[in-house]
Amino acid sequence: MSTQDLPAPTSTPPASTRLEPGQLLFEAPRRGKPPRHLADLTLAERKDAVTKSGLPGFRAAQLSKHYFGRLVDDPAEWTDVPAAQRETLYAALFPRLMTSVREITCDSGTTRKTLWRMHDGALVESVLMRYPDRVTMCVSSQAGCGMNCPFCATGQAGLTRNLSTAEIVEQVVAGARELARGEVPGGPGRVANVVFMGMGEPLANYNAVIGAVRRLTDPVPDGLGLSQRHITVSTVGLVPAIEKLTAEQLNVTLAVSLHAPDDDLRDELVPVNTRWRVGEVLGAAWDYAHTTKRRVSIEYALIRDINDQVWRADLLGKRLRGKLAHVNLIPLNPTPGSKWTASRPEDEDAFVRTLEAYGVPVTVRDTRGREIDGACGQLAAVEA
Ligand code: SAH
Description:
The chain has 12 helices and 12 strands. The strands form 2 sheets. A 10-stranded mixed β-sheet has the order 1-2-3-4-7-8-9-10-11-12, with helices on one face. The chain has a two-stranded antiparallel sheet with strand order 5-6. α10 (310-320) links the parallel β10 and β11 (325-331). The protein has 2 domains: 38-93, DNA polymerase, domain 1 (Orthogonal Bundle), CATH 1.10.150; 96-383, TIM Barrel. The chain starts with 42 loop residues before the first helix and ends with a helix. α7 (239-247) runs parallel beside α9 (278-292). The protein has 384 residues and is an alpha/beta fold. Bound molecules: S-adenosyl-L-homocysteine. The site of S-adenosyl-L-homocysteine (SAH) has 18 residues, from β8 and β10.
């Protein structure tokens, strides 16, 4: 990345933005590419950026330790950096990427959804879910989504833009900070899992998402030090991108949003199916499973009388039996005005039993966050 990527300084900051120390030098442009942030860069690139701003390269490692190790991005707390250098470093590597517009909680505060406004006004959501034994964060990879799935709130609004690597990483760091500071009921804690199941199609923003996976999993202080196996990338099934991911030698969990075992119905529920058919998507998923030795998660939103018939469970069982797969059934969370709703309990049970008869592991996802519109995109849809 070159210095040309730095945002152009502007003389009059927009009135709506709260000014942070570094923004006096580098006010983020209101539209267009997000400004470069420390979390966009590898350690070598951070050193380069620091040297280019006229300061010694070893400051990069110190800043990395503050950001990824201590979760601190306030220059006042960089006590090992001379005060005279702090503003330069802050301006070069810590533009304000996003501001929390609203945070809503449920489950006694252990499920927290944040609506973020990005530098250009784009809206994005992330969700923190604390369970007795772990914390999972659900992050967005795009503002909006271009995949147009008719049951999904984000799909209705279309794609605004891709997020940068740092904009994705910041969602996790923000949650990690809340946990470390004991702001989430249950005492201080850490993020264990990250799922790319917020807004957007992660494999349609491939490079930024892979960059984020590396930042999240690089050991502290280069990155956040999470385990690759605890990261889940969920896709509608962009076959060439799944193949690329297979070649990446990452051990992340792949989730495929199938929602129907037959092309006729999947063409309707996941429109990109007209480009890559069920057979091709599953073929790419099995290659991923064989290469990584990791079980692929098959996501299936159960929609009453649409995709929840026993004959469809039977077809799904036939396609998945003997494969390194696990089915995650998601009771449909109806979007406002939707003609569709969740399956009846007896149909859900029959669906589960049919799959189990084929020896396919299956779980029904818990419906955490339902009261706060946990289904992707619903909060942003309300705000917009
Ligand atoms: N674009 C990616 C990730 C985004 S959503 C993908 O499609 O996989 C994460 C999961 O939530 C997907 O399986 C998606 O199909 C599902 N989903 C979206 N809207 C939903 C709703 N209203 N009810 C239940 N599941 C939903």
